[in-house]
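#lab-general

N.A. 3:47 PM
ok so I finally got the sequence cleaned up, no stray characters, all 532 residues accounted for. can someone with queue access submit it? mine expired

B.Y. 3:52 PM
send it over

N.A. 3:53 PM
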Amino acid sequence: KVTKGNAHPHGGEAVAIVHNGIIENFSELKETLRDAGVSFQTETDSEVIAKLIEHHLTRLGSPEEAFRVTLGQLEGAFAIGMVAADDPHRIYCARQGSPLAIGHGESEMFIGSDAMALAPFTRRVTYLEEGDWAVLSLTSARIFDANNTPVERPETLSDASAALVGKGRHRHFMAKEIEEQSEVIAHTLSHFLDPASESVVMPEGQIAFDKISMLTISACGTAYLAGLISKYWFETWAKLPVEIDIASELRYRDVPYADGNAALFVSQSGETADTLAALRDAKAKGQTVGVVVNVLESTMAREADVVFPIKAGPEIGVASTKAFTCQLAALACLALTAGRQRGHLTAEDERRIVHSLFALPRLISEVLADTAPSIEAISHQLAEASDVLYLGRGVSFPLALEGALKLKEISYIHAEGYAAGELKHGPIALVDEHVPVIVIAPPDRHYEKIISNMHEVIARGGRCILLSSKEGLERAKADDPLLGAIALPEVDSLLAPLVYAVPIQLIAYHTAVQKGTDVDQPRNLAKSVTVE
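B.Y. 4:20 PM
back already:
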């Protein structure tokens, strides 16, 4: 439980530790220590680490030896930092499964989960590899591998900057990051697109899409939904079959990967535990592995065959916004590349889609300027709801899932996203005047069908919020007044999620503000999930 007693650091008179991760065998270790007369004050697995180190310290006399022996007894995923009372100018640290980095200062050293955590103190970073442990003094670091052999790990200069992580004029990081999307998507596109030729220019070492018969995509949370949207792009533009699954499921399935195929993993941090485990499994089974990541120094980036950076900059809010849309932008460019390599997109097709991609920063700016006041007004009514439904078809279906996830994450309102064609297969039973229904309906080939679904909801007393173009709102012709109508600019139908994501994010944000929740740090959630 989250209590003062369970809070870090843990320890006694001899050592104190901080720990991120899960010690899977902590119950057995705890019982062994209790049999040896050791008492415990907390409910945590972390305290077991500290007590075990102290137990060995009484026998060995050396904090370094006690730390090393303890590491050999721990099972699970962890990043650990330790200080000893009789040697306060040293930090002992280790990583297994969870990320850990060493920061080099001037006569001072730091440990942290990643470069962003260290950014306020230093840009000089050394990343520990799996199984590494280290002893830090004020001026140096001695690093050992999993076999306790001394090793050298390179020092890198991180791109993370403390100057980039302020809120500026915004009340919340999330609001700042929503507004930054028009700028950062331009950075993503400039990395992959050539404006002169209106074509995609991939970095060296790209995946040979014309040589594969199947692409596997996997991720967690919002990144998974970005991958799910990209499935439509790969299959439409490149005629490339895509197998996509949540990383926590994929890693435990006995996946029959075919030789010579490729797998793509998506993660903002590049440290997501389940995604990293799925990546390692795919690589071990002979897949060419690509990663779509925001942190180029991350574990996933270092272990992949090909890295596709999203260039979103630091994202502090737990609920992903700009990283999501930058992931979409990068994935769209990859799908275009696949279509060109496989001969299913002509040069003219590519120019047309690239032209549409280049228009996205302007369109997003328009959405931010034009829709925020009306969405803020709608949020007053949504904040009173206990349940909200989101409906979409085609590429808007994963966006409906993303909208529901955002609302759940930061407002704590129960929300569900559905493929609108499934409405009569169960979800319509939930519809009444107390359940707002958000309908995502860009004027694409699915438009008429989803508007028909919206009328079915209205006929049963449901209150709908419709997201569509100005023309789409006029064509909807709802007999009963809508709870809200949000007009969005015209956009290429397959690229609509990049524009329609913005009002979806604003709906969640303003509703959470109305409810008074902790928008940037929702309860029970963490920015980077580094344990299973």
